[in-house]
Specification:
Pfam families: DUF3311 (PF11755). The chain is mostly helical. The protein is 34% helix and 0% strand. The termini are far apart.
Length: 86
């Protein structure tokens, strides 16, 4: 039986940022400044996607487990097989 999995890394707390950030409406509840004609509401909402992707990537890289390598096979003899010429 394998050991129970533990996902209790402190890096997982960074995932709270992309969840809470869009919920704080005073950050983006205004019309100006405009970016390429879009009100701040729209381009800030779009930028939250990038924040989520970057945060998720950081947490993944910091918490991924090293790959499991299979056990090395037993060493075989490197002598060439003897041939008999009759």
């Amino acid at each position: 039986m394998s050991a129970p999995r533990s996902d209790r890394s402190p890096w997982n707390w960074l995932l709270v940022i992309p969840i809470v950030l869009p919920l704080v409406t005073p950050l983006y509840n205004f019309d100006s400044p405009r970016l390429w004609g879009f009100p701040a509401f729209y381009w800030l909402q779009f930028s939250f996607i990038f924040v989520g992707v970057i945060t998720t990537s950081i947490v993944y890289q910091m918490t991924k487990r090293p790959p499991v390598t299979p056990a090395a096979p037993a060493e075989q003899s490197t002598k060439p097989a003897e041939t008999t010429d009759e």
